[in-house]
Design brief:
There is one protein chain. By secondary structure, this protein is α+β, with helices and mostly antiparallel strands. The chain has one domain: Gcn5-related N-acetyltransferase (GNAT) (Aminopeptidase), CATH 3.40.630. Helix content is about 25%, strand content about 30%. The protein is built from 3 helices and 8 strands. Strand 5 (about 65-75) and strand 6 (about 80-90) form a beta hairpin. Helix 1 runs parallel beside helix 3. The longest helix is centred in the C-terminal third of the chain and has 16 residues, at about 100-115. The radius of gyration is 15 Å and the shape is globular.
Amino acid sequence: MTNETYDFEYPDEAGYPDGVGTLSETQVALADEVSTDASREGSFTDLPLLLVQEPAKTTWSAIVEDEEIGDISYDLADDGRRVILKSTTVYPDYRGQGVASEMIRRLLVELRKQGVTATIECPIVRTFIDQHPEFADVVDPNHPGILRVRR
């Protein structure tokens, strides 16, 4: 983990009096991971990682060889045409290997294909999108969620 800190600017309706939220140690580690994924070699992009939507749990789960290794939680809004991405989790044994980036990348590609937009409440997803602006079109323009990352 680096010594960097991350602050996220939230819109007024998010409920933070100062408009800023901070991250836990685990979240900082995942934010560091997605911030540096562009230079990563040998990540899960080449492995048989499946991203499976589990509506009963309101998650997309990352599965490798029948083992769940992480997930992204969500809520549905606007009759399923918009999702609210709430949190990203990578189980400890799989952190630092590009799992978070690959889960987020695959999810955003899938949402785009379905014509679904996203409200970003997860700071890890926001960090990923800031590093990969080619996915900015998936963020709902009327309900973006976290607006930007400040380091």
